[in-house]
Please model this.
Amino acid sequence: MRLPTRVLIADLTSRRFSVEDRADLFQYYIGGSGVAINLLSEYCPKGADPLGPDNPIIFAVGPLVGLYPLASKTVAMFKSPLTGNLGESHAGGRSAVAIRSAGYGALVIRGASESPIYLSIDGKGVQFRDASGIWGIASSVTTGRIIRELETGAGTRTIMRIGGAGEHLVRYASVITETYRHFGRLGLGAVFGSKKLKAVTVSGDHGIEVSDRKLYRETYDDIYKRAVSSPVMKKYHDIGTASNIMPLNLQKGLPTMNLKATTSPEAEHISGEKLAENYLGRRVACAHCPVACIHIAALREPYANEPYFYKTTMIPYDYELIYALGSMVGIFDEKAMLHLIDEVEIWGLDAMSTGVVLSWATEAMEKGIIGPDETLGLSLKWGDEPPYAKAVEYIVKQPNEFYSALAKGVDFASKRYGGEEYALAFGGNEIPGYHTGPVGYVGYLTGARHSHLDAAGYSIDQAALKDKLPDPKTAAAKLLKEEAWRQVLSSLVICFFARGIYDKDTVANTLTTAGHKLQPEALEAIGMQILREKNRFKEREGFNPKELRIPGRVFETPSPLGKVDEKYLRESVDEFYRLLYA
Amino acid sequence: MTRLTVVDADRCVGCQLCMFACNRRFGEGGLAKSAIRVRSAGGFERGFVVVACRACPDPPCMKVCPVDALGPRKGGGVILKASKCIGCHRCVDACPMHAIFWDNEANKPDICVHCGYCVNYCPHEVLAIKEAEPK
Model:
């Protein structure tokens, strides 16, 4: 067996599974995003309810998984309950290696179970296991601990699970894997919850043949050497993505207090450097990644009611979490921020969406469009962590109409209560942590996932600090080219952090040894085709780029490149979609 | 004679590059033939356990092999004579470290030969090859 072309289809309604060989898809679309969008288009009927049994969950890996370092991601696709169109989220941990070692290139989970269930998947197929004794356990961490004891395969398995947020169908609930990795964005956790699916474990022990052993070892060593010696990778290892806090704060591009500000003199307290010096307790890596970018703070605190009795909590932090649950809600006390991160992790919510929802609610309260009647007495104030932690619990449990609106995202909540001009979402997805300039925003608007990772427009803005800003049309062309190439990477399921290592020649060698016949010249065109197919799915489900809302706040608060010009954004967005379908 | 040593498991980040390296000795990818394993110590929040053969001078696995497929290795540990092995799993059960793994495809044990190939791919100084101490 060489290419991972087998697709496992598990039906939760009938509790049956089948396996199909889909070499037709894997040979052209490679794996990951390319295969997943095709499976999603096939298995998701037009107009399906994202929280109904018709919405399939697709997990796809690629031909380099298990063979090469940093080919470590699993792509999840589904119809998003947050945006109503494309749901796509990537995570590492051990998920990718586990899926491939079990002998699959992709998993499709369809239907819905009447009673709580979890899936145990290996090379032999699927066990549909009763989860009624686990359902209702609100903590994603505890859920992981229980399943760990129930299942075999320690060291080579993945345990993807939801916490209370997924069970309660919060539209931006995440799926957590290996405690610290997330299918975070766009609400996969709610799709799990709607199917009464508490967890999916996958393990296996299939070997993977290569087509040229000598070239395999040489290519491996080349990638490995570059991975452990590259300065970019060292940055991700040493301080991690949190190293971006200080530069962005200095440039005045760090969204602060719902983007009323972009910098704070207190940002140093929540910087990667400070967290590493005072709290870093462990680094963790995804399977087959030498970098270990996952940074975990050890927070030691006394119990209030007993002297000399402490607990130590291990809390992951990354740039996006610090932005969303730190600066965005005005929390610059690092302990308070770590607390809030922990809360969000345990319930299993997307950190970015949660932070943006909370910051909108704080401003809405400040402006008096909501009050204690809505918040159930909570006084949401910048920097005040305990009410935020309580609000997170309310978002999960939805005790009233207000919190149930918050659980549907900031677009929904602001349509209901007002304050749309400072409801920071693009295409229905809450804003990531970069107020760097216009190109970043064009990227949020045009990216198929409305994510900063679709095309990294912020890096074009940041380059323009030293050089000059491209005109709107050039910016659109650059974003499109980058997003198309990233489809290739996410179909190979290479971590985007390693995009500099996996240049076109390296990709070509790895594909050859993996037994793939694709010509490297064809890759760019394939990437573009995948991107078009993703956008076609969105439009099929009602997305219309002409209706993209841009909250006014974006234009009010100056970016490092000055005030963002609406005309620039509109022109660039139009050009992007023109080029996409040209 | 040298043997593989876990120098500092607290530095381990769980990347499993050692496991992949071990398997690559056979010219293939994946983990089917790997004779070393890194697993979490009961969840990633608790760090990692590196499970590897410690090259026992008097190996219990060897003693229970009913067909003498395991012979003593100079410096400790065992050498597998695969042609003799009948796949009975007794060696796996006898190892108190759980450091003998199973290749389901070949139906034979995966046993560390202390070659040190994995050490070359440990970027975090968890593993080393050291001279076996006199017993």
